[in-house]
Protein backbone atom coordinates (compact mmCIF):
# COMPACT_ATOMS: atom_id res chain seq x y z
CA UNK A 1 0.00 0.00 0.00
CA UNK A 2 1.38 3.36 -0.97
CA UNK A 3 2.23 5.51 2.05
CA UNK A 4 0.95 9.04 2.43
CA UNK A 5 4.21 10.96 2.36
CA UNK A 6 3.15 14.46 1.41
CA UNK A 7 1.03 16.85 3.44
CA UNK A 8 -1.52 16.97 0.63
CA UNK A 9 -1.95 13.19 0.73
CA UNK A 10 -2.40 13.25 4.49
CA UNK A 11 -5.04 15.96 4.22
CA UNK A 12 -6.93 13.91 1.65
CA UNK A 13 -6.80 10.92 3.98
CA UNK A 14 -8.19 13.00 6.85
CA UNK A 15 -11.01 14.31 4.67
CA UNK A 16 -11.82 10.78 3.53
CA UNK A 17 -11.90 9.46 7.11
CA UNK A 18 -14.11 12.36 8.23
CA UNK A 19 -16.56 11.78 5.36
CA UNK A 20 -16.76 8.06 6.08
CA UNK A 21 -17.26 8.75 9.78
CA UNK A 22 -19.97 11.33 9.10
CA UNK A 23 -21.74 8.87 6.82
CA UNK A 24 -21.68 6.17 9.48
CA UNK A 25 -22.82 8.52 12.24
CA UNK A 26 -25.42 10.59 10.40
CA UNK A 27 -26.86 8.10 7.90
CA UNK A 28 -26.17 4.47 8.72
CA UNK A 29 -26.42 4.96 12.48
CA UNK A 30 -29.99 6.36 12.56
CA UNK A 31 -31.11 3.88 9.87
CA UNK A 32 -29.84 0.89 11.83
CA UNK A 33 -31.31 2.32 15.02
CA UNK A 34 -34.74 2.67 13.36
CA UNK A 35 -34.59 -0.92 12.13
CA UNK A 36 -33.65 -2.08 15.63
CA UNK A 37 -36.44 0.01 17.16
CA UNK A 38 -38.99 -1.62 14.84
CA UNK A 39 -38.38 -4.92 16.65
CA UNK A 40 -39.45 -3.53 20.02
CA UNK A 41 -42.58 -2.18 21.65
CA UNK A 42 -41.88 1.21 23.19
CA UNK A 43 -43.90 4.32 23.97
CA UNK A 44 -41.04 6.81 24.24
CA UNK A 45 -37.30 6.82 23.72
CA UNK A 46 -36.66 6.62 27.46
CA UNK A 47 -39.40 4.15 28.44
CA UNK A 48 -38.66 0.43 28.89
CA UNK A 49 -38.72 -1.60 25.68
CA UNK A 50 -40.24 -4.99 25.10
CA UNK A 51 -38.87 -7.31 22.43
CA UNK A 52 -41.65 -8.26 20.01
CA UNK A 53 -39.65 -9.44 17.01
CA UNK A 54 -41.64 -9.17 13.79
CA UNK A 55 -44.98 -8.55 15.54
CA UNK A 56 -44.85 -4.86 14.62
CA UNK A 57 -44.46 -5.75 10.95
CA UNK A 58 -47.36 -8.21 11.11
CA UNK A 59 -49.49 -5.53 12.79
CA UNK A 60 -48.61 -2.76 10.34
CA UNK A 61 -49.00 -4.92 7.23
CA UNK A 62 -52.65 -5.66 8.06
CA UNK A 63 -53.38 -2.07 9.11
CA UNK A 64 -55.62 -0.37 6.48
CA UNK A 65 -54.00 2.96 7.35
CA UNK A 66 -50.65 1.68 6.04
CA UNK A 67 -52.05 0.75 2.65
CA UNK A 68 -54.05 3.96 2.43
CA UNK A 69 -50.90 5.96 3.21
CA UNK A 70 -48.94 3.97 0.62
CA UNK A 71 -51.57 4.66 -2.05
CA UNK A 72 -51.71 8.34 -1.09
CA UNK A 73 -47.92 8.56 -1.31
CA UNK A 74 -47.92 7.02 -4.78
CA UNK A 75 -50.62 9.44 -6.00
CA UNK A 76 -48.79 12.40 -4.50
CA UNK A 77 -45.31 11.48 -5.74
CA UNK A 78 -46.29 10.33 -9.25
CA UNK A 79 -48.52 13.38 -9.87
CA UNK A 80 -45.86 15.79 -8.64
CA UNK A 81 -43.03 14.11 -10.55
CA UNK A 82 -44.92 14.04 -13.86
CA UNK A 83 -45.82 17.73 -13.59
CA UNK A 84 -42.32 18.69 -12.47
CA UNK A 85 -40.68 16.87 -15.38
CA UNK A 86 -43.10 18.13 -18.03
CA UNK A 87 -43.03 21.75 -16.84
CA UNK A 88 -39.30 21.63 -16.12
CA UNK A 89 -38.54 20.48 -19.66
CA UNK A 90 -40.85 23.13 -21.11
CA UNK A 91 -39.21 25.93 -19.11
CA UNK A 92 -35.72 24.65 -19.94
CA UNK A 93 -36.48 24.65 -23.65
CA UNK A 94 -37.83 28.18 -23.35
CA UNK A 95 -34.85 29.44 -21.35
CA UNK A 96 -32.48 27.83 -23.86
CA UNK A 97 -33.73 30.11 -26.61
CA UNK A 98 -32.07 33.45 -27.34
CA UNK A 99 -34.21 36.43 -26.29
CA UNK A 100 -33.63 39.76 -24.50
CA UNK A 101 -33.34 39.36 -20.74
CA UNK A 102 -32.65 35.62 -20.89
CA UNK A 103 -29.99 35.80 -18.16
CA UNK A 104 -32.40 37.63 -15.85
CA UNK A 105 -35.18 35.12 -16.51
CA UNK A 106 -32.83 32.23 -15.76
CA UNK A 107 -32.06 33.82 -12.40
CA UNK A 108 -35.71 34.49 -11.59
CA UNK A 109 -36.74 30.95 -12.56
CA UNK A 110 -34.63 29.42 -9.77
CA UNK A 111 -36.13 31.58 -6.99
CA UNK A 112 -38.90 29.13 -5.88
CA UNK A 113 -36.25 26.46 -5.32
CA UNK A 114 -34.36 28.80 -2.97
CA UNK A 115 -37.29 29.65 -0.71
CA UNK A 116 -37.64 27.78 2.62
CA UNK A 117 -40.47 25.27 2.67
CA UNK A 118 -42.12 26.96 5.63
CA UNK A 119 -42.37 30.24 3.67
CA UNK A 120 -44.05 28.43 0.77
CA UNK A 121 -46.49 26.69 3.12
CA UNK A 122 -47.41 29.89 4.97
CA UNK A 123 -47.90 31.76 1.69
CA UNK A 124 -50.17 29.00 0.35
CA UNK A 125 -52.20 28.96 3.56
CA UNK A 126 -52.57 32.74 3.42
CA UNK A 127 -53.76 32.67 -0.20
CA UNK A 128 -56.18 29.78 0.38
CA UNK A 129 -57.49 30.48 3.86
CA UNK A 130 -61.22 29.76 4.01
CA UNK A 131 -62.02 33.12 5.60
CA UNK A 132 -59.23 35.57 4.77
CA UNK A 133 -57.52 33.97 1.78
CA UNK A 134 -56.92 36.16 -1.25
CA UNK A 135 -57.82 33.42 -3.73
CA UNK A 136 -60.86 32.54 -1.61
CA UNK A 137 -62.19 36.09 -1.96
CA UNK A 138 -61.48 36.07 -5.70
CA UNK A 139 -63.40 32.83 -6.11
CA UNK A 140 -66.28 34.30 -4.14
CA UNK A 141 -66.28 37.49 -6.20
CA UNK A 142 -66.62 35.62 -9.51
CA UNK A 143 -69.48 33.48 -8.24
CA UNK A 144 -67.88 30.25 -7.02
CA UNK A 145 -68.93 30.75 -3.44
CA UNK A 146 -66.40 30.50 -0.62
CA UNK A 147 -64.40 27.33 -1.21
CA UNK A 148 -62.83 25.58 1.75
CA UNK A 149 -59.69 24.39 0.03
CA UNK A 150 -58.18 22.39 2.87
CA UNK A 151 -61.42 20.71 3.95
CA UNK A 152 -61.97 18.83 0.69
CA UNK A 153 -59.78 15.74 0.09
CA UNK A 154 -59.36 16.37 -3.65
CA UNK A 155 -58.54 20.07 -3.35
CA UNK A 156 -56.20 19.44 -0.39
CA UNK A 157 -54.22 16.87 -2.37
CA UNK A 158 -54.20 19.20 -5.38
CA UNK A 159 -52.78 22.03 -3.26
CA UNK A 160 -50.04 19.81 -1.85
CA UNK A 161 -49.08 18.57 -5.32
CA UNK A 162 -49.09 22.04 -6.89
CA UNK A 163 -47.05 23.51 -4.03
CA UNK A 164 -44.45 20.79 -4.52
CA UNK A 165 -44.46 21.31 -8.27
CA UNK A 166 -43.99 25.06 -7.89
CA UNK A 167 -41.07 24.49 -5.50
CA UNK A 168 -39.18 21.75 -7.34
CA UNK A 169 -39.83 22.43 -11.02
CA UNK A 170 -36.90 24.90 -11.15
CA UNK A 171 -34.57 22.08 -10.08
CA UNK A 172 -35.69 19.95 -13.03
CA UNK A 173 -35.52 22.95 -15.38
CA UNK A 174 -31.96 23.84 -14.37
CA UNK A 175 -30.77 20.23 -14.73
CA UNK A 176 -32.41 19.88 -18.15
CA UNK A 177 -31.08 23.28 -19.23
CA UNK A 178 -27.56 22.23 -18.28
CA UNK A 179 -27.95 19.04 -20.31
CA UNK A 180 -29.18 21.02 -23.31
CA UNK A 181 -25.86 22.88 -23.40
CA UNK A 182 -24.09 19.60 -24.21
CA UNK A 183 -26.16 18.89 -27.35
CA UNK A 184 -24.13 19.88 -30.46
CA UNK A 185 -25.76 22.64 -32.46
CA UNK A 186 -24.65 20.89 -35.66
CA UNK A 187 -27.22 18.15 -35.04
CA UNK A 188 -30.05 20.67 -35.04
CA UNK A 189 -28.69 22.38 -38.16
CA UNK A 190 -28.51 19.05 -39.99
CA UNK A 191 -32.05 18.20 -38.90
CA UNK A 192 -33.36 21.54 -40.15
CA UNK A 193 -31.69 20.95 -43.51
CA UNK A 194 -33.45 17.57 -43.68
CA UNK A 195 -36.77 19.29 -43.00
CA UNK A 196 -37.32 18.17 -39.41
CA UNK A 197 -39.67 20.37 -37.40
CA UNK A 198 -39.36 21.42 -33.75
CA UNK A 199 -41.28 18.41 -32.45
CA UNK A 200 -39.23 15.92 -34.47
CA UNK A 201 -35.99 17.59 -33.37
CA UNK A 202 -37.06 17.30 -29.74
CA UNK A 203 -37.99 13.62 -29.87
CA UNK A 204 -35.20 12.48 -32.19
CA UNK A 205 -32.30 14.66 -31.03
CA UNK A 206 -32.90 16.47 -27.74
CA UNK A 207 -34.61 13.75 -25.76
CA UNK A 208 -32.20 10.92 -26.68
CA UNK A 209 -29.17 13.12 -25.98
CA UNK A 210 -30.33 14.20 -22.51
CA UNK A 211 -32.03 10.92 -21.56
CA UNK A 212 -29.30 9.80 -19.07
CA UNK A 213 -29.56 13.07 -17.14
CA UNK A 214 -33.35 12.99 -17.27
CA UNK A 215 -33.45 9.46 -15.85
CA UNK A 216 -31.22 10.49 -12.96
CA UNK A 217 -33.43 13.51 -12.23
CA UNK A 218 -36.55 11.34 -12.24
CA UNK A 219 -34.83 8.91 -9.87
CA UNK A 220 -33.85 11.67 -7.45
CA UNK A 221 -37.24 13.33 -7.57
CA UNK A 222 -38.95 9.96 -6.98
CA UNK A 223 -36.91 9.35 -3.83
CA UNK A 224 -37.40 12.86 -2.51
CA UNK A 225 -41.11 13.10 -3.24
CA UNK A 226 -41.89 9.66 -1.78
CA UNK A 227 -40.14 10.75 1.45
CA UNK A 228 -41.36 14.35 1.40
CA UNK A 229 -42.67 15.28 4.83
CA UNK A 230 -42.35 19.01 5.46
CA UNK A 231 -44.57 20.51 2.75
CA UNK A 232 -47.41 18.04 3.39
CA UNK A 233 -47.27 18.38 7.15
CA UNK A 234 -47.10 22.17 7.09
CA UNK A 235 -50.03 22.47 4.67
CA UNK A 236 -52.48 19.76 5.75
CA UNK A 237 -50.91 17.63 8.52
CA UNK A 238 -52.19 14.64 6.55
CA UNK A 239 -55.82 15.78 6.48
CA UNK A 240 -58.62 16.10 5.81
CA UNK A 241 -59.68 12.61 6.92
CA UNK A 242 -56.13 11.35 6.22
CA UNK A 243 -56.56 12.21 2.53
CA UNK A 244 -53.00 13.54 2.27
CA UNK A 245 -51.39 11.24 4.82
CA UNK A 246 -48.55 9.30 3.20
CA UNK A 247 -45.99 7.00 4.79
CA UNK A 248 -43.69 9.65 6.35
CA UNK A 249 -46.64 11.33 8.06
CA UNK A 250 -48.06 7.98 9.16
CA UNK A 251 -44.70 7.08 10.69
CA UNK A 252 -44.53 10.44 12.47
CA UNK A 253 -48.11 10.16 13.74
CA UNK A 254 -47.60 6.67 15.13
CA UNK A 255 -44.26 7.46 16.75
CA UNK A 256 -44.88 10.91 18.24
CA UNK A 257 -48.66 11.37 18.45
CA UNK A 258 -49.81 7.85 19.27
CA UNK A 259 -46.66 7.02 21.30
CA UNK A 260 -46.01 3.90 19.26
CA UNK A 261 -42.30 4.18 18.49
CA UNK A 262 -42.08 0.58 17.33
CA UNK A 263 -44.96 1.05 14.89
CA UNK A 264 -43.55 4.34 13.56
CA UNK A 265 -40.12 2.78 13.07
CA UNK A 266 -41.75 -0.17 11.33
CA UNK A 267 -43.56 2.11 8.87
CA UNK A 268 -40.29 3.95 8.17
CA UNK A 269 -38.43 0.67 7.69
CA UNK A 270 -41.07 -0.68 5.32
CA UNK A 271 -40.90 2.57 3.34
CA UNK A 272 -37.12 2.17 3.13
CA UNK A 273 -37.51 -1.43 1.94
CA UNK A 274 -40.01 -0.42 -0.76
CA UNK A 275 -37.70 2.30 -2.04
CA UNK A 276 -34.76 -0.12 -2.04
CA UNK A 277 -36.72 -2.60 -4.14
CA UNK A 278 -37.74 0.12 -6.60
CA UNK A 279 -34.13 1.32 -6.81
CA UNK A 280 -32.91 -2.20 -7.51
CA UNK A 281 -35.48 -2.55 -10.31
CA UNK A 282 -34.52 0.88 -11.68
CA UNK A 283 -30.80 0.14 -11.77
CA UNK A 284 -31.47 -3.27 -13.33
CA UNK A 285 -33.48 -1.95 -16.27
CA UNK A 286 -32.06 1.55 -16.73
CA UNK A 287 -28.49 1.73 -18.10
CA UNK A 288 -26.20 3.88 -16.01
CA UNK A 289 -23.58 4.29 -18.73
CA UNK A 290 -24.33 7.18 -21.04
CA UNK A 291 -23.16 5.24 -24.12
CA UNK A 292 -25.48 2.37 -23.28
CA UNK A 293 -28.38 4.78 -22.79
CA UNK A 294 -27.83 6.29 -26.23
CA UNK A 295 -27.32 2.98 -27.97
Molecular structure report:
The two termini are 39 Å apart. The protein has a two-stranded antiparallel ribbon. It has 14 helices and two strands. The radius of gyration is 24 Å and the shape is globular. The protein is mainly alpha-helical. It has a single domain, classed as MetI-like (MetI-like fold). 25% of the residues are buried.
CATH class: Mainly Alpha
Let me know the largest β-sheet: 2 strands, antiparallel
H and E string = HEEHHHHHHHHHHHHH
Low-confidence stretches: 290-295
For this structure, the CATH topology is: MetI-like fold
**Count of domain modules:** 1
- Shape assignment: globular
Percent range of helical residues: over 70%
Question: How is this fold's topology laid out?
Answer:
Layout: H1 7-37, E1 40-41, E2 50-51, H2 55-61, H3 64-95, H4 102-109, H5 111-114, H6 117-128, H7 134-141, H8 153-180, H9 185-193, H10 198-226, H11 230-235, H12 247-257, H13 261-285, H14 290-294
Antiparallel strand pairs: 1-2
Helix pairs in contact: 1-13, 2-13, 3-8, 3-10, 8-10, 12-13
Amino acid sequence: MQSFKTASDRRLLVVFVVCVGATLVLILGPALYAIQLSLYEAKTFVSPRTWVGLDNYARIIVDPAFWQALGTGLVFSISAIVLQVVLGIAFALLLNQAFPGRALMRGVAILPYLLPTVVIAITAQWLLDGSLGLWTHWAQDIGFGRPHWFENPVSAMTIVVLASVWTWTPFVAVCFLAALQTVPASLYEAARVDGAGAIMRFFHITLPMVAPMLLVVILLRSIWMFNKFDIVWLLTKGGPLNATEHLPILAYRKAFLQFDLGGGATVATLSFMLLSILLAIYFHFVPLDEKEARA
